[in-house]
Amino acid sequence: MTDEELVQEAIKYREHSYSPYSHFAVGAAVLTKSGKVYGGCNIENASYPVGICAERTAIVKAVSEGERDIVALAVVGDTPGSCSPCGMCRQFIGEFKIPKIIMANMHGARKTVTLEELLPFAFTDSDM
Fold it and tell me: Which of 37, 12, 40 is CA-nearest to residue 28?
């Protein structure tokens, strides 16, 4: 699967966003080593901390299906530039050592970074 195909999957999942409070819809898709794609969207809650971001939704879906070797993640939002994962999602991405993160927007902007570029001082299992 190409990076652009993964971005298009994230765009599809963005359509399912439940974001009645922020009105900021985000979609994400992860590609596993086995070739499967799992997607997610952000899901808000009136009790804000209870909500979940699109990136974590996609990762949780993959892991809950037994897929732990994730090779890429794409995230898409309607932002002026490429949509970047929040700090909590960066740490979650780091937990699963996802090596390629594709940040995109709805207007064609794309930026691909490594995990080390996204979260240079990650707290990892080696810190435990």
Answer: 40
Q: How many domains does the chain have?
A: 1
104 Cβ contact partners less than 8 Å away, ≥ 6 residues apart: 7, 10, 74, 75, 76, 82, 83, 110, 111
CATH of the domain at 112: 3.40.140.10
Q: Are 5 and 101 in contact (CB under 8 A)?
A: no
55 is an active site residue:
yes
Ranges of residues in the chain with a pLDDT under 50 are: none
Cα-flanking dihedrals φ and ψ of residue 5, to 5°? -65, -35
Q: Which domain holds residue 50?
A: 3-127
Structure tokens at 20: 């009645």
Name the average pLDDT for the chain. Answer: 97
Out of 55, 65, 95, 117, the active site residue is: 55
Which pLDDT does position 11 carry in this prediction? Answer: 98
